[in-house]
Amino acid sequence: MHLTRRLLAAVTFLAAASPRAARAQSASAFVPLDHPLLPLFDHLVARGELEDPSPLVRPFRQADALKALSRADTVDHARLAAQVRLLAQAFDTLAAEAGWQLAPRVGIQTYTTPRQDLMRPTGSENLQPYVELGASARFGGIVAVTRPAIEPRLTHDPEWTGRRDLKISGRMVDAYISGQWRWAQLLYGQLERNWGPLGVAGIPLSNAGYGRPEISLSLGTDRVRLTAIASGLQNATDSSGQVFRRYFFAHRLDSKLSSRLRLGLWETVVVAGVDRDFDGRFRNPVTLLLLANQYGLGDKENNVMIGLDGYWRIGRAVNLAAQLALDDVQYKNRGGPTRYPDRYAFTVDLSGPMVGSASWRALYTQASSLAFRTFTPAQDFLDGGVGIGRTYDDYDQTSLFASFPVGSHWLMTPEATLLRQGTGRIQDPVPLNHSMAAGNTPQLFIGTVERTWRLALNASGSRGPVALTASAGFHHRVNADNIAGRTTDRFVGRLFLTVGLRRRGTLQ
């Protein structure tokens, strides 16, 4: 892949030209999004006990988490001090400049739905084994991480794009090599990402599906950072049998305007076409994708989405996080008879401390009726039929959470959610019929609206070799499956329990 060779050559040149900068820090693995103690870390961030290493961007590095933990004021808080020690031990990096670590785990997954998204359960209950072997090695400024897992649940998950005809299936949860220098980071491989407020799938990138191989480059400091990610997507075939080659590129500029305010600007693009290459102008980290697309060169075989993220610490009590994305705005003939609805999505998230050691979070998110899709399905923000960011459109969601630590190792989080879902589906093409554009396609909520009321209790944590994430909820659905008058009630539960160990050593 030309992109891989060029970026590797660029970083090699950087290391050779600036050897002191290249040796300025040791590489650190990333904290995976499924880490059972990550919710506890985020709880302390919501309370203001910890500074978020990278607001609206996950994952962050273990070293960045440790830096935030080292700054926590635990002098007068015995429970906080115990939590900080637990997290510091869990996120501890390899001590040696050249070292290795093995972390095997075995356990069970029992669930009433195999889908990762509990708000939209499907399928039947089951009990499945789970086995993973985490391994990592560090050589100064380079870290390699691999985490293969045997996970039979996958073959029943609608968002799984791999084989379904196997009794024993597996995946690579993490698999990457990262070179990290003082001003730059390069990553090749795959890991799960989420760009956006916590508690909901990010709009441009999320772990709603599963990670895909990528190459990413990050330049800058905590004050200003530019990140670019490039990856291939599964090819698409139209009704005539033509094969569309598809590629994905995302880049964002994060700026820390003050200790309390951060802003992020980002763009994503799906490049698709018959015999199409991954054009250089669409994988340039410092270009404007809109000018490389229809507003510049007139290239229309692409779909560009732009977005703005914001994070503001208001006083000592409230964190405000927000994300806005524009997929397409009809700026011409807005009042005309053939106007199509704007395509957009946004999220607003508020969080803060409660009495004692608890925290609260409230969020509202919305995706318009035609968001993330186009007239040409090959240009949709999908990979194998699964959303790159959001997997659904034509809905909104309101959620309230409260988190309560139980001891130093566990976190309990009651949840109340209302999800309203129209009949629009992200896998469907934008309708070409002008009669639909003339007002029959609403901005939000096509057809009969399904309403799901969810009350749930979520738990996560780790003690010694035992790690646990669990959720138990009751769903009351009105107009279930978008059928007027149909009402259903259902218990939705999941328990993921593993036992493991960690061993490490030096390679010198």
Keywords:
508 residues, mainly beta, 18-stranded antiparallel barrel, two-stranded antiparallel sheet, 7 helices, 12% helix, 44% strand
Would you give an account of this structure?
The two termini are 33 Å apart. The protein is mainly beta and 508 residues long. The strands form three sheets. It has an 18-stranded antiparallel β-barrel. Strands 1-7 form a two-stranded antiparallel sheet. A two-stranded antiparallel ribbon has the order 16-17. It contains seven helices and 23 strands.
Radius of gyration: 23 Å
Q: Can you give the helix content as a percent range?
A: 10-25%
Biggest beta sheet summary = 18 strands, antiparallel, barrel
Count of helical stretches: 7
Ranges where pLDDT stays below 50 over 5 or more residues in a row are 13-24
The overall average pLDDT, rounded, is 89
Elements, N to C (H/E): HHHEHHEEEEEEEEEEHEEEEEEEEHEEEE
- The tally of strands reads 23
Shape: globular
Which structural class matches the secondary elements?
mainly beta
What's the end-to-end separation, in Å?
33 Å
State which percent range the strand residues make up: 35-45%
